[in-house]
Write a structure and sequence with these properties.
By secondary structure, this protein is of the alpha+beta class. The chain has helices at residues 7-16, 25-30, 52-65, 117-127, 144-149, 157-160, 241-250, 283-299, 316-322, 355-369, 399-418, 428-437, 440-453, and strands at residues 21-22, 45-47, 69-72, 89-92, 99-103, 108-112, 131-132, 167-173, 179-183, 213-220, 222-223, 227-235, 256-262, 271-280, 310-312, 341-350, 376-380, 385-395, 422-424. Helix 1 (7-16) packs antiparallel against helix 3, helix 10 packs antiparallel against helix 11 (399-418) and helix 11 runs parallel beside helix 12. Bound molecules: flavin-adenine dinucleotide (FAD).
């Protein structure tokens, strides 16, 4: 039921229309949870603006009443990042869902903040089938902008870096309500690149919506090859993985490298499956790439000379998942291993040579807590770093298991920091741990930037704080 005599609610309803603002507990409840294990959060209002002008008005209203704003796309981080850490309003951006410009010769697209991965993917397939964007494995309703904000990654991130690298520019409503154009579009009529300018896009990526609300995004598109195949390697000894990954990327023919760990039947000796995707426009091109990778398999020996390599014939059922775009190999599949399926993962950004240690640590944590451990590793850049997913599936119906998963996440975050890695899309408690370890001058700089941009501290407070 609406609480009508609330002045903030009344103003929100005036700005966006009654159907798109709410303070009804039953609707707020939906916005107070995500599908991970973060508990319900307090939400006071939900607002769904359709235009940049409405976003500006809502931001000004929030400043006037000192009500926190948390921008929300599809709320799919699994770590509660689309939920308010400290009450206030959720700004659901899904109504801003237009694709504004597709520029084929310049290989970019301009979209609004609510455009989803599925929407952009199918739009490109229909209107420009020789170009694609770097889609994450996240469900198709995840927003493209939400993924940029958390510096996510997709199946083109081996070649072109994490997805935030693909931004040309953006339109942002600053925490004080002004609209700001970031990238070449602030000088040129076109948002075709970042330009030889100070790179302000970094002020909005990785900040978890604490520095402004992105309303439009200009995104790079990349050549889409006609055919795709997967070559699989398996190693018995995880210590050999870094060298194998190095050599595979050194061939310069691989588009995506994803490693999954599968426990053996007795649960003690997991195997590592390295899946290298290759693409091409001609059969000959693909044949050449296959031959290179097969030769590597025949020659590969670890740094200490141990031969622990062989190609594994990727079964069709697995291959059909890898050749999908995005590949459907998500640890989400693991959520169904147990009834009531849910899962959480600590996605740790690690140096590639830390993979064996991470594997050992994850296995130990899971076995001590009696959990299943399903590592999934996405290689970023040419082995410049890896996203090591420590995946812990759980049965949502068992609160006691859920609690053990929370504990596993806590211990994993600590272990990752101890290893010199950094948890990615860290939940609020993990952000605190990162901040505790941060060089104090860096933390002060972050805080100072936030104070300058957001003098009333209304943008998603609680994130990146001590
Ligand atoms: C099964 C599964 C698989 C996944 N696989 C991947 C993967 O392969 N790669 C990957 O990168 N991620 C993956 N994820 C994580 C996540 O779902 C994605 O990164 C997703 O793209 C996030 O988008 P979202 O719309 O859900 O963002 P949200 O969760 O809604 O938001 C993310 C952050 O961005 C902020 N934000 C949202 N919109 C705006 C805006 N307009 N302006 C400013 N701030 C904003 C929010 O406040 C929040 O801090 C996966 C998740 C699941 C469930």
């Amino acid at each position: 039921m609406t609480i009508p005599d609330d002045p903030v609610y009344r103003s929100l309803a005036e700005i966006v229309g009654q159907d798109y603002a709410s303070n009804r507990p039953e609707e707020l409840f939906i916005y107070s949870l995500d599908s991970g294990t973060e508990g319900p959060r307090k939400v006071d209002y939900v607002v769904m603006p359709a235009t940049v002008e409405q976003v500006q008005k809502v931001v000004r209203l929030a400043n006037q009443h000192r009500v926190p704003i948390t921008p929300m796309g599809a709320n799919l981080t699994l770590n509660g990042l689309g939920l308010p850490a400290d009450g206030g309003m959720v700004m659901d951006v899904k109504r801003m869902d237009r694709i504004l410009e597709l520029n084929r010769p310049r290989r970019y697209v301009v979209i609004e903040a609510g455009v989803t991965q599925g929407h952009l993917g199918s739009y490109l397939e229909k209107n420009c089938p020789d170009l694609e964007h770097s889609r994450p494995e996240a469900p198709p309703m995840a927003t493209v902008v939400g993924n940029m904000v958390i510096r996510g990654h997709g199946y083109l991130s081996l070649r072109y870096g994490n997805n935030a690298h693909h931004i040309n520019g953006m339109e942002v409503v600053l925490p004080t309500g002004e609209v700001c154009n970031i990238g070449a579009g602030c000088v040129s009529p076109w948002p075709f690149c970042k330009g030889p300018l100070p790179d302000l896009t970094g002020l909005f990526c990785g900040w978890n919506g604490t520095t402004g609300i992105i309303t439009k995004l200009s995104l790079k598109l990349f050549p889409k090859r006609r055919i795709l195949d997967v070559i699989g390697y398996t190693v018995k000894d995880v210590a050999l993985l870094p060298e194998l990954l190095y050599q595979v990327t050194h061939t310069d023919v691989v588009d995506n490298l994803f490693v999954v760990g599968i426990a053996s039947a007795d649960g003690r000796e997991p195997r590592q499956y390295v899946n290298a995707s290759i693409t091409g426009d001609l059969d000959e091109e693909l044949a050449y790439k296959r031959a290179l990778l097969q030769r590597l398999a025949a020659q590969f020996a670890g740094a200490d000379g141990r031969q622990a390599r062989f190609l594994y014939p990727v079964p069709d059922v697995i291959k059909s998942r890898f050749v999908e775009k995005p590949p459907y190999v998500s640890p989400a599949l693991a959520a169904d291993f147990q009834k009531g399926g849910g899962y959480r993962y600590c996605g740790a950004i690690l140096p590639v040579d830390k993979i064996p240690e991470a594997w050992r640590v994850g296995t130990q944590i899971a076995s001590r807590l009696g959990l299943m451990f399903l590592p999934g590793i996405q290689i970023l850049g040419y082995c410049h770093s890896a996203m090591f997913g420590f995946v812990y599936p759980f049965n949502r119906a068992e609160e006691e298991t859920v609690e053990r998963v929370r504990q596993a996440m806590k211990e994993t975050n600590e272990a990752v920091l101890e290893m010199g890695g950094i948890p990615w899309k860290a939940e609020v408690s993990a952000q605190r741990k990162i901040v505790e370890r941060m060089d104090p001058a860096s933390y002060e700089l972050i805080s100072r930037i936030r104070r300058v941009l957001d003098p009333n501290g209304i943008m998603n407070p609680g994130n990146w704080s001590r």
